[in-house]
């Protein structure tokens, strides 16, 4: 199976009832401009203000520009995290298509109103399932700031192992963790 525009889900118990839903490109563009009202009009889900806040605004700008350069990335990048009741609780996706070595990097953020309910763990599990089903993907990578204990617990839970450290121009010093999926 290859990545599609259909909602992504997983049969894993941690992910029960949750899914990752692709936003239309014009909605991503609207979010990148901080235009929540237009994005809401373009989305099938009620979008919370969190999506234009400091945890998300730069991501939408980056993804909007990225999709303009290569529209094929739209299938891979940031999606909405939807809970079992149809509520948007955050965002999650890959940073783009697999690179030449088959590596994809994950990114996710959960609205503070919905944290500590397993949504990040569920979203990460869904991303791993999607990666495992796509023959292009060999390795899933995550970059985690040393002080982000909650995120580190999520990636550790899913079996990623630390492979090094690096400086990220957006996030500063991060630990790089990976898991083979092929």
UniProtKB/TrEMBL annotation:
<dbReference type="InterPro" id="IPR051531">
    <property type="entry name" value="N-acetyltransferase"/>
</dbReference>
<dbReference type="GO" id="GO:0016747">
    <property type="term" value="F:acyltransferase activity, transferring groups other than amino-acyl groups"/>
</dbReference>
<protein>
    <recommendedName>
        <fullName>N-acetyltransferase domain-containing protein</fullName>
    </recommendedName>
</protein>
<dbReference type="InterPro" id="IPR000182">
    <property type="entry name" value="GNAT_dom"/>
</dbReference>
<dbReference type="InterPro" id="IPR016181">
    <property type="entry name" value="Acyl_CoA_acyltransferase"/>
</dbReference>
<feature type="domain" description="N-acetyltransferase">
    <location>
        <begin position="26"/>
        <end position="180"/>
    </location>
</feature>
<dbReference type="Pfam" id="PF13302">
    <property type="entry name" value="Acetyltransf_3"/>
</dbReference>
């Amino acid at each position: 199976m290859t990545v599609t525009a259909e909602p992504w889900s997983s049969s894993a118990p941690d992910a029960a009832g949750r899914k990752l839903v692709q936003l239309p490109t014009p909605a991503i563009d609207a979010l990148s401009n901080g235009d929540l009202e237009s994005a809401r009009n373009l989305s099938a889900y009620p979008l919370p203000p969190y999506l234009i806040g400091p945890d998300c605004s730069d991501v939408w700008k980056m993804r909007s520009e990225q999709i303009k350069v290569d529209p094929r990335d739209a299938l891979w990048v940031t999606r909405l995290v939807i809970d079992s009741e149809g509520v948007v609780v955050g965002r999650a996706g890959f940073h783009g298509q697999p690179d030449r070595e088959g590596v994809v990097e994950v990114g996710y953020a959960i609205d503070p109103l919905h944290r500590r309910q397993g949504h990040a763990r569920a979203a990460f599990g869904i991303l791993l399932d999607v990666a495992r089903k796509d023959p292009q993907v060999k390795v899933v990578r995550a970059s985690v700031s040393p002080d982000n204990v909650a995120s580190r617990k999520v990636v550790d839970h899913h079996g990623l192992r630390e492979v090094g450290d690096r400086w990220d121009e957006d996030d500063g010093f991060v630990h790089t963790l990976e898991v083979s999926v092929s």
